[in-house]
From TrEMBL:
The lineage of its organism: Bacteria, Pseudomonadati, Pseudomonadota, Gammaproteobacteria, Lysobacterales. NCBIfam families: GGDEF (TIGR00254). It is an enzyme of class 2 (transferase). CDD domains: GGDEF. Its EC number is 2.7.7.65. This is diguanylate cyclase.
Amino acid sequence: MSRRFGRAETTRMKAPWHSPAGAPPESRLLASVAEFTHHRDIDALDHSVVLSLAELIAVNSVTLCKRGESPQHPVDSIVVCSRKPGGGFVIEALDPTREGDPLDTLVCAMETLEAISDITDDGNSRLVVPIHREHAAIGALMLEAPDSLDNVRSMVEGFARIYCNYIALLNESERDKLTGLYNRRSFEQRLQRLLTLQRQKARGAAQDGEDKRRPVEEPSQLYLAILDIDHFKRINDTYGHVYGDEVILLLAQHMRASFRQSDVLFRFGGEEFVILLAAQDETAVHLVLDRFRQFVADHAFPQVGHVTVSIGYARITENDYPEIVLDRADKALYFAKQNGRDSVHGYESLTRRGELATPVSLGSIDLF
Ligand SMILES: Nc1nc2c(ncn2[C@@H]2O[C@H](COP(=O)(O)OP(=O)(O)OP(=O)(O)O)[C@@H](O)[C@H]2O)c(=O)[nH]1
């Protein structure tokens, strides 16, 4: 299989379940479904699905691709489980932004909602099955094997249906009911995913740098921003909670439309939102956040009219505890609230200018 997107995050795996030698195929199948639906964590579930299928069927590899939220980013994540020549499996998370085949084939199956059965350049059989719910694909499964995969197609489609139902349940527990944005519970896991993706991109960029034919991607930093609606209590008190809720909902929709698909948006509770975003540097992140602040200030909400927001942000590095970064961004937000609201402030620049007290260190806050 020609993989033009880069390799990353390798984990050596054993089969997750053990069915006795000679057990009937039905019990192996049930054992594998029981194993993957045991997971409550979406990344662990994804790994378990590809591994279970690779164990059940004599394949070279099983790929699970998850759909992105915009046409510019049709794929959100890709996980591949490959059989090793000496036995056992390797699971890799691949960079979903690299173009070419097999990404194009996976996207085609997701768009047409039709399974694709073909032969790869190196002569293997390939089966791509869309994972869909209510006429919309949430992803696709792709299998490659030396022999024909026609006889396993209905089983793979069954796996796709079970996976789809189960992921819907897990997704519900990760999302805020009013806005559909991620909730606070999913914050740490999303942050870890983003840091992993960041590492993959850095590695990919280094490889591209060695390969002079490829354009080098500009390095970027990760930032965490906390956005809070100003004087929200007044909105509730003046117009009632229903209009208050509508402001929260519309603001969330504007956030989705304004930020990049790769930025991760949370409603942390009440009228407070968190954004995880990548930017070239502090100037760039400030510009993006201030542009959104200005958009909100200029926008007229139904009935309520003009509303403003305050934003505080801080940089995230690999070694930071999430609580520390949240606390830094919160300090910058507090500064904005104390200094006129309707503004954006960065923790690092406030600290450099000596406008905040002592920088936040691990010993200074309660982690639990
Ligand atoms: N409508 C609605 N109101 C909420 C929700 N969650 C929290 N609130 C209200 O949001 C208000 C937040 O008020 P405060 O924390 O005092 O802050 P504020 O009035 O926005 O003032 P500043 O943040 O200082 O600008 C409270 O009145 C909460 O009851 C919600 O889901 N819907």
